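[SOLVED] Need 3D model of a two-part complex

Original post:
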Amino acid sequence: MSTPLSGLGKSGLIRHLAAGIKTSQPSTLKGIGDDAAVLGYGNATLVAATDTLAEGVHFDLTYTPMQHLGYKAAVVAISDLYAMNAIPRQLLVSIAVSAKFSVESLELLYLGLQHACDQYHLDLVGGDTSPSITGFYINVTAIGEVLPEKITCRNTAKKGDLICVSGDLGAAYLGLQVLEREKKLFEEDASMQPQLTGYEYVVGRQLKPTARKDISDFFASAGMVPTAMIDVSAGLASDLMRICTASNVGCEIHHHKIPVAEETIRTAGEFFTEPLIAALNGGEDYELLFTVPVAEYEKIVGRQDLSIIGYITAPEDGCYLMTGHGNRIEIQGERSFDRLSS
Amino acid sequence: MSTPLSGLGKSGLIRHLAAGIKTSQPSTLKGIGDDAAVLGYGNATLVAATDTLAEGVHFDLTYTPMQHLGYKAAVVAISDLYAMNAIPRQLLVSIAVSAKFSVESLELLYLGLQHACDQYHLDLVGGDTSPSITGFYINVTAIGEVLPEKITCRNTAKKGDLICVSGDLGAAYLGLQVLEREKKLFEEDASMQPQLTGYEYVVGRQLKPTARKDISDFFASAGMVPTAMIDVSAGLASDLMRICTASNVGCEIHHHKIPVAEETIRTAGEFFTEPLIAALNGGEDYELLFTVPVAEYEKIVGRQDLSIIGYITAPEDGCYLMTGHGNRIEIQGERSFDRLSS
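Solution:
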């Protein structure tokens, strides 16, 4: 029997493979199924998450500087820990690299990793460096700690909770479109210079995303613990569906509440793309998507970098996007395995 | 400037890249430079190690069953924790896989991972599944715990210590030669059946190695803490040199004391290979190489599965293999980056 991977979404595949896996160690508090595993050792509660970026899937070295790649690989794993409301502390980094790479290019990669470590106050404590026959792979494991009462999982959203998201969405996807366009033009005519003026924001969001430490810090200073949280890696639609599926709830979000930057809207126009589609399905935003009780409304509403985009409903109400004039569209979460997703 | 990777050994490359990296988190007790990082959280001391296996470098899917690959990937990371004298507890697994793989083949991979988890009493707690354009990559991070007084590093061997190794060496390398020979014969004539009878031991050591939990248990029950330890992944010569370099000591080991299995010797003969060379440079044995004070001699000497192969000398004495009749050969550690090593 041979079932192609392409038939399953990424979450579906992980769910399928993890279905038979049981945990038995007392130190395992939470296994597969969230942004990070939760471990209890002595009087400490730890979180650990691992992410792989693969050449040709998650990045293209023709337009991705090695330094940015190192930074981004770190941010992707660090973001998973913020999505648990945890504090990242250490990184382990494994790379598989073909002999055609220079020592200098790996130095740049490590500069980027170190830059992320400095910015988010982590230590790079270990790793592995392997030869690779084809392609470049980087795997980052992030380890951190969390107070047990602050752990924020995907499966604890409650009916009536507000759905909130930090920053804006869809920019990283459009940055990728710009970079791909310039690559194509360069391939057709090698005298072409890449034209990135006016696209600094969207390209920056693609090449050098930010993990929302500031939002994690805000939760701490506001004395607030979200009821559920995830980072937006696959796209708002997929990631919101992950919360709803895990929490067994429905949701209703509103088109005009979804935050999209000016430059994203303008760039989307050039590519004949709906900004909404980029926000819903683009992914790689690494913003925090979370739910809070209505009682927390006042704490959220005053912040420019947080948007309330809807609310959690009962499971039988389904998951819907309201587009105005009473129209509603059912939210489709998962995309197929062979598309970009991290 | 462009310096090729092939000019540096694997340890040399990691040392080079890690040279500028400083740690500042109080929870980081030991960073890059040993089999695993050591972390202190609350009253617990943890260890974490990460390893990547790359298709075409560390394994060939034409003769590596997916179930064995999963098992081996887990063992490689678990072995790193035993080499710290720690107890492995959790695994995080990332795979990058092309869409041509079937769901069933990944199920087999996870069966192998689960089998290793069952055998060594670990939980599989998380991971990532990415698309890959070319090749199959598997990264395993192992997390475990250790009593602070039992942590065994590479850099603490002392002059006069006995050098000991578990099991036997060189078999995994010769198992690889047998598998490569059968693959070649099959490629020349597809009606050929692989002939593995008589090679079960060496092939088994290549495809399904063992992490020496039993030796770690022996240290605990004997109330013994090695002065230094490493697992034999790159080969006895390289791994012993890692201990000597990190500890700033010399060593003298004896040819006829190095444990090599009967089947390894016989198979080496067929391939016109010296069994000694396979033991020194073959790698992938995942035996424990450790040093103990002479006072522990009695505890070691009675065990069939431990061999005392030499002793630690002063740094100015260098690192030598004694071959009998007073001949001695300087031990060369590092191999170049583009050769197999993990």
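Edit: Chain A touches chain B through 86 residues (CB under 8 Å).
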